[in-house]
Amino acid sequence: MRPEDRTDPIPSITRMELAISVVLRWGVMLSGLVILIGILAFALTHTTGYAQVPAHHLRDLLAYHQSRGPGYFPTAVHEVLAGALAGKPYAIIAFGVILLIATPVVRVAMSVLFFLAQRDRLYVAITLFVLAVLLASLFTGVG
Q1: By CB distance 3.0 to 4.6 Å, which of 10, 13, 34, 50 could disulfide with 71?
Q2: pTM of the predicted structure, to 2 decimals
């Protein structure tokens, strides 16, 4: 049987869209679950993992600046990972946010792979450019 005689019940574009939708859905759900775990850990312990927060200072949680907020809030990825592994509520919440930010980046990376499989050089180039811009803005803080 020749390749052009075979009928594929699911076109490759549809498979690509389905795979990407699964990654986006699970990425958002996983990040939401991690953030919820961090919020619950904070609610149960009344500590950020870096400082105690009395109930009447809950409004201070929105002030992440070290000089104004309740202690330190990790922002570097290695600090977030180390804090989350140590069970610090703020770091767990930040890890959930990192997962949420990473979800569409993974989607773009998957698109590169799909376009490579389809041998579509133009879309590979465009998507690689978009991925490079995303990664550069994430790691430099510009954009």
Answers
A1: 50
A2: 0.74
Long-range contacts of 83-89 (CB under 8 A, 24+ apart): 83/49, 83/50, 86/49, 87/41, 87/49, 88/48, 88/49, 88/50, 89/38, 89/39, 89/41, 89/42, 89/45, 89/47, 89/48, 89/49
The single-letter code of the amino acid at 16 is M
Q: How far apart are CA 41 and CA 35, in angstroms?
A: 10
Mean of per-residue pLDDT scores for the chain: 81
Give the pair of three-digit tokens for residue 30.
Answer: 């996983």
The answer to whether position 116 is within a domain reads yes
Max Cα distance, the chain (Å): 74
For the chain, the domain total comes to 1
C-alpha closest to that of 36 among 99, 79, 86 = 99
- Say if 109 falls within a structural domain: yes
Q: What is the domain extent for residue 93?
A: 14-140
pLDDT at 6: 58
Nearest to 13 by CA among 114, 89, 107, 125: 114
Give the ranges where the chain is alpha helix by DSSP (H).
Answer: 12-45, 77-85, 89-117, 121-140
Whether residue 31 lies inside any domain: the answer is yes
